[in-house]
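Proteins fold. Shown next:

***
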Amino acid sequence: MVECVVDKKDKDISSLSVLDWRNIPFSHPDKTIHLATLFSGIGSIEQAFKRLNLKHKIVFAGDIDPFVKQSYFANYDIKEENWHDDVTKFSAKKYKNKVDLLVGGSPCQAFSMVGKRRGLEDTRGTLFYDFARIVDESKPKVFIYENVKGLLNHDNGRTWKIVQETFNSLGYKIFTQVLNSRDYGIPQNRERIIVVGFKDNNVNFTFPSAIPLNRTMQDFLEDYTDSKYYLKEKGIKFVTSTKNRKKQYTQINGSVALCQKANQQFNWHGDFVFEQAKSEDFDEFIFDVSKVEEKYYLSDKVKNYVLAGGTKNFRTSTETDLKVARPLLQTMHKMHRAGVDNYVTHNKGRIRKLTPRECLRLMGFKDDFKIVVSDTQMYRQAGNSIVSDVLIAVLKQMDITKYGR
């Protein structure tokens, strides 16, 4: 039987289950969970087990990205023989009945055969087929499948329909809900569909209730930041663009982070931090660059003209950041065009990207996670991961230790 899909944001928190999953004790804390993952990324479920201090053994894992493999092997205990690089060529038959929990989330793809109701066969040629096939081959006691919320409407809902039919055809009882990480302690607006499947069809499961968000993105920032993360003028113009901020491509000093993505940060998308200089360092007000639209920035041509040391109409140097402004005249608009007026620079505040470590924190990864790849790769890996805190809530709610050995 397929459970209905519930969008968490459409439910009033007060109407949810009064049982707080944070207070649920594990029934068998000494048992070991045999864990397996597909499309493993940097190990969000492994982080969840680590943070819960639960005994677990990695049965198999894999990812097609060689940089992901570097991060995974640097942080988790796994043998080379249990790692797969290409899920389409991976067989899990030798792991049958050796897996307690299987976790993964395949890229969303349309299925070529729709409405045939042939279960697993309807999904051939897609990566979802490989996830379902490996569920069928390994027969885990429980699986967790994660994907973007858009899966529900993908291909006019036909993709989601076949996903449901496929899991049911494998003999699993499934429960589905859209969960947002901001409802589970992480200030990031990241909605993902979570499917939990149980081999035991007698299981009744409810998803963990939302908890109050008592932290902001600023609580996850590092105390000291390398100068390389601060934006130069071109980046500042892009980030502060009214168009980009209105479309939520960028955000400055947000209390709840935008949804992290694979293309975040290194191409100036996502969250940014404006750091003001201390007021005692200046006699005048602090210039908040994060509130200035891009149209007020000078072009390189005009900037060079302004800083050239003087003009025909203004013999003295056109200094910037004057303590006493030059006279504001009715002809001010003409003076701007002529490059003669009052100008300010950004030395009283700077905008910077989030660091890779901050991005990891916002995905629920603790600071003992080793970063062994470039910033570009780390941003990508963080953006492709699952928020560990959401998985922790699901593991607590189902009492995952019941399925250990």
Q: What stands out?
A: The domain at 6-214+384-403 is CATH 3.40.50.150 (Rossmann fold). The mean pLDDT is 83.
